[in-house]
Known about the structure:
The complex is a heterodimer. In chain A, 62% of the residues are buried. In chain A, strands 1-2 form a two-stranded antiparallel ribbon. Chain A has one domain. Helix content of chain A is 76%, strand content 1%. Chain A is mainly α. By secondary structure, chain B is mostly helical. Chain B has two domains: 73 residues, no CATH class; 82 residues, no CATH class. The longest helix of chain B is centred in the N-terminal third of the chain and has 27 residues.
Amino acid sequence: MDAILHGLLTVFIPTNFLFLFLGVFMGIVFGSLPGLTATMGLALLVPFTFTMSPAAGLIMLAGIYVGAMYGDAIPAVLINTPGTPAAIATTFDGFPLTQKGMAQHGLVAAAFASSCGSLVANGVLITAAPPLAAFSLKFGPPEYFWLGVFGLTIIASLSSGSMVKGFLAGTVGLILSAVGMAPIGGDVRLTFGFPELQAGIELIVALIGFFCLPEILSSVIGKRRAAYSDKPVTPKLAVIGEVIVSLIKKPVLMLRSSAIGTIIGFAPGAGGNIASMVSYNEAVRWDPNPEEYGKGTIKGVAASEAANSAMAPGSLIPLLTLGIPGSPPAAVILGALMLHGMRPGVELFTSYAEVTYAFIMALLVAAFLVTFIGSFGSYVFAQIINIPSRFLAPGIIFMTVLGSFAIRNNILDVWIMFVFGIVGFISNKLKFHPAPIVLGLILGPFVEEGLVKSMLAGQASGSIISYMVLRPISMVLIAMSLLSVFWPFYADWKAKRKKSQ
Amino acid sequence: MKDNLAEKRTKVRLNGDLITSISTAVLALIVFSVTRDLSRLGVVFVNYVLVMMAVLSLVVFIKAFIKPERVIFFESVIERNNVLAGTSILLLYLIFLPFAGFLPSSYIFYFAFNTYLADEHRFSKRNLFQSMLISIIVVTAFYFIFGNLLGVPLPEGSWFDGE
C-alpha cells in the first residue's frame, strides 16, 4: 500500500505531472492521425526518455499509451476513419452520431469511456496482476482459435440486413488476411509478384480504404455536400455533463466493456481491435434496445472505447509480471524498462517498486487527464466537422495517402488503400458492407495460427477435435460463439412475438 | 433527349445479390487456382475459407433469383460524373507521387481538388487564389510535421533524384 501511495505522489511531482500531461497530449495526437500509432509514438519517444529518470521516462510513456488509446476515437467519430485498428468499432456509432450533428456527444463519450476502461483495468493491474498473468498462460492455440471465431460471430450483429452477405464479406476479409507469408510453414501466398505483400496487408491501410475513402467519394464528391456532416455541430459545455451523466447511469455497460478489454488485454497478442469488437457485440446483445446501435448512440461508442482503453493496462499485466508483452505498445514499454535496467517479474514489484507503481499510477492519472483533455477538447475537435467540405475533404484524402504511406514507407500501400476505397464504395452501393471484410482481415491471422498450431498439437496428442474442443476455456468460447450467432435470431423472434401480442 | 437517356441508364436498378455472388465466386476461383502449390500447413486455412466462401456465394446467388436486392449506383448523371472526376484526380496524384515526389505533386493535387470542389465560380480569381493559398499552407505544414518533426519518411520523386 505504501508503494502505491508513494507511486501516486511521484506522479504528482510537478515535472513528472508535466511529462504525463505532455505524454497524454502527444498520445492523443499520435492516436488521432491515421497512420501514426501508439506503438510508433512510444518507439519514437523511448530514446528521449532514456536521458530522464526512470520514473519520469516511464510516466511520460504511460501518458502516450493512454492518450493514444483515446486519440484514435477522434477521427473514428468525425470522419469514419479509425486512428488505429483498435477504434474500428467506434466508427459504427461514432460517425452516425456526427452525421446527426452530435459529434461532440461521440467525442465526450469516447473520452469518458476510455477513462473508465483505463481505471477498471488499472484497478485490476494493481490488485490482481500475478494470478491473472498466470491465467493468461492457459491461452493456447485452441483458445486463440476460438477467440478469433468468437470475434467473427460479431458479423451476426453487424449485418442486420443480410447475415449471409455479412458472413460472405467476412470470408473475403479472411482471404485478404491470408495474403503474405503463412504464419506456420512460411509459404508465400497471394502476393501476385509483389514482394512488399509478403508482410501481408497492413490493417490501417485497409481501414482507411474501406471506411474513409468511400464516404468522401459518396457524400462529399458524389453528392457535393457543402459540409461533411448533414447538420453543423454546435459544441456546448452542457453536452459534456449530459453525456457523462448518461454513461454513469449505465454502470453495467461500462463495467462489462472494461472487463472485456482487460481480459482480452492480458491474453498476449489479442489486442485492442478484438477487445473493442467483442465489447460492442456484447453491448448490442444485452441492450434492451439493440436497434439503436449502428444508427448513432453514445452507448456503442462507449462500449468500444472502454474496451480498447482497458486493453492497454490489461496488456501490461503479463508484461510486468511475466515479461510477456500483450500488445505491440507493451513490447516497446518492455524495451524502455530494459533500457533502465528493470527486468519484469517479482523484482519489478520489490526492488523497483517505487518506479513500477509510479508507472502504474501514471496510467491511472492519465485516465483522468484523458477525460479532462478529451471532454474539453471535444469543443475544438467537434468543430473540425463544420469546416466546408471543399477544404476538409482534400485534407482528409491527403492524410489518408500520407497515413497509408507512413506505416511502411511503401507506395504500394497507398495503391492498396485506393483500390480498397473503390471496392468499399462499390460494395456499399451493393449493400455488401465492408465492416465484416475488415473484421475478417483483423481476425484471420488469429484464427489461422490457432487452427494450424492446434492441428499440429492435436495430431501429436492423438485427436485434433478433443484437443481443440475439450478444454475449459475453449468450451466457454464455443458456447459464447454459438450464443452470439443465434442471439440475433432469438432477439428477432422475441421482437416479433412481442409485436404480435 | 441524350441527357434523359443517360439519366435513365444511371438509374437502372441492378441486382446487387447477383453482382455480389458472381464477384465473390470469381474471387474464390482465382484464390483457389493460385494456392494449389502451397504446402499443407500453408493451404489448410485458405481451403476452409474457400469452402465457406463458395457455399455462401451459392446461397446469395440463389437469393438473387428468389428475392433479389435491387440497388441504384448513382442518383444522377451529375453524381456519377462527380465521382469519376474526383477518382481521376486522386488517381493522377497517386501516379505522379513516386515520380514528382511529395511536395510538388501534393501542391498540385491539393490545389486541383480544392478548385474542383468549389462552387460554380470555381475559376474566379478569388477562388483560385484561395485554393492556391490553402494548398501551400496545408501541404507545407504537413511536410514539416511529418517529415521534419516526426521523422516520417515521405515519398521522394525519381525525377528529382539527380542521378
